[in-house]
């Protein structure tokens, strides 16, 4: 793929900051900026930053199209990590004549990066770009677990045109369908209709209220560990911490909490794409939101650099195994705990038509799931996955 056909190279001086006055330890000096006149081997990169200045399908947030470079200005002032990482900034995508053209090109580019084992970090733009991200997995015929950090479900309905607050239904109805699971982290119940909540339950999707997550943020880790793609709508952050968004409220995640969630996402061995959307620079105060987003990206990369590759299960000696008889389960519930990281998984049986267990799904979980099993209780996480896999 000739990337020069699709991207406008970003100004590496970021509005006048000269490289010779920037420390070689700051990210401006550590990231490779794509230059069409000097092609690079994309396979040499680990992470690729993509700016997508597209907001024509936004809901009352057209100015979020200006977000990518504002985020960059803050991000490249930060200092490097302890370990080296190969990041290329591909620049800003040249948007299509129509929004659908932008979706199609973005999906092609993300699919190309995925096939070359490069993880894209997408700087939106509006939240409907998550639909293009999903379609990239469709192109490579990979089943997707999507985790959305958002105050709303953005469900929409089958007759409504796609919009930043109405795209999930399009993923559900897309045929062939590659969406295995959707999990929302941080929804605010008063911002979602009872009908949408009921639909989430009927589809066995996972929904976690912001207050529940804030009580024990560690419970976010197994949720994002099961994700192929994670999207963050900055409206999930409380307005005092992120004023640069028209859709957030007085409640939501605090800045340090959203950074911790991003780090959990980065450390997930399974995760292969990450996007941040809905930042409006015209509403920002003192660059507060762009700074926070730059920190979110920084923590995501720090997590990426600490991946442990403990989800392969090739060496069973690397795990402690626990088998527990639980009422209501088809058989004993089997848990694995990594000796290396202390992370947990539970097996979910997949039942054939003749009622035999054909194989098992390794579901990321927490010690809380194990503790519930010891009390003869089955976690909602296990039940939802069981019903989804055997529906």
What keyword list fits this structure?
single chain, Arginase, Chain A, globular, 11 helices, alpha/beta, 10-stranded mixed β-sheet, 4-stranded antiparallel β-sheet, about 400 residues
User: What about the largest sheet?
Assistant: 10 strands, mixed
Topology order in helix (H) and strand (E) letters: EEEHEHEHEHEHEHHEHEHEEEEHH
Termini separation comes to 39 Å
Q: Helix segment count?
A: 11
In what range is the share of β-strand residues? 15-25%
| Uncertain residue segments | none
Oligomer state of the chains in this structure: single chain
Identify the CATH class of the largest domain: Alpha Beta
Please identify the structural class as seen in this structure. Answer: alpha/beta
For the record, the count of structural domains works out to 2
Q: Over the alpha carbons, how many angstroms does the gyration radius reach?
A: 21 Å
């Amino acid at each position: 793929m000739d990337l020069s056909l699709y991207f406008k190279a970003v100004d590496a001086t970021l509005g006048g900051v000269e490289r010779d006055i920037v420390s070689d330890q700051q990210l401006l000096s550590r990231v490779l900026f794509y230059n069409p006149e000097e092609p690079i081997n994309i396979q040499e990169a680990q992470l690729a930053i993509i700016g997508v200045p597209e907001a024509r399908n936004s809901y009352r947030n057209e100015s979020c199209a200006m977000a990518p470079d504002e985020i960059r200005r803050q991000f490249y002032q930060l200092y490097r990590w302890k370990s080296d990482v190969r990041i290329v900034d591909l620049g800003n995508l040249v948007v299509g004549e129509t929004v659908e053209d932008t979706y199609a090109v973005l999906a092609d580019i993300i699919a190309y990066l995925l096939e070359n084992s490069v993880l894209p970090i997408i700087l939106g733009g509006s939240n409907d770009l998550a639909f293009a991200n999903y379609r990239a997995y469709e192109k490579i015929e990979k089943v997707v677990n999507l985790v959305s950090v958002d105050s709303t479900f953005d469900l929409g309905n089958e007759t409504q045109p796609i919009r930043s607050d109405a795209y999930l239904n399009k993923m559900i109805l897309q045929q062939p369908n590659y969406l295995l699971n959707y999990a929302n982290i941080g929804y605010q119940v008063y911002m979602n209709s009872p009908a949408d909540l009921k639909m989430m339950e009927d589809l066995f999707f996972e929904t976690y209220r912001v207050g529940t997550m804030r009580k024990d943020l560690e419970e976010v880790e197994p949720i994002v560990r099961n994700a192929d793609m994670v999207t963050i709508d900055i409206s999930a952050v409380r307005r005092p911490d992120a004023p640069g968004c028209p859709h957030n409220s007085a409640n939501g995640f605090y800045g340090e909490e959203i950074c911790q969630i991003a780090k959990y996402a980065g450390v997930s061995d399974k995760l292969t794409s990450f996007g941040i959307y809905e930042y409006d620079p015209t509403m920002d105060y003192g660059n507060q939101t762009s700074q926070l987003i730059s920190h979110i990206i920084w923590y995501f990369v720090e997590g990426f650099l600490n991946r442990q590759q403990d989800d392969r299960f090739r060496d069973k000696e690397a795990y402690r195994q626990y088998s527990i008889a639980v009422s209501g389960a088809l058989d004993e519930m089997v848990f694995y705990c990594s000796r290396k990281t202390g992370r947990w998984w539970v097996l979910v049986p997949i039942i054939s038509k003749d009622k035999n267990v054909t194989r098992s799904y390794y579901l990321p979980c927490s010690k809380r799931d194990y503790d519930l099993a010891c009390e003869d209780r089955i976690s909602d996480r296990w039940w939802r996955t069981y019903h989804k896999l055997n529906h």
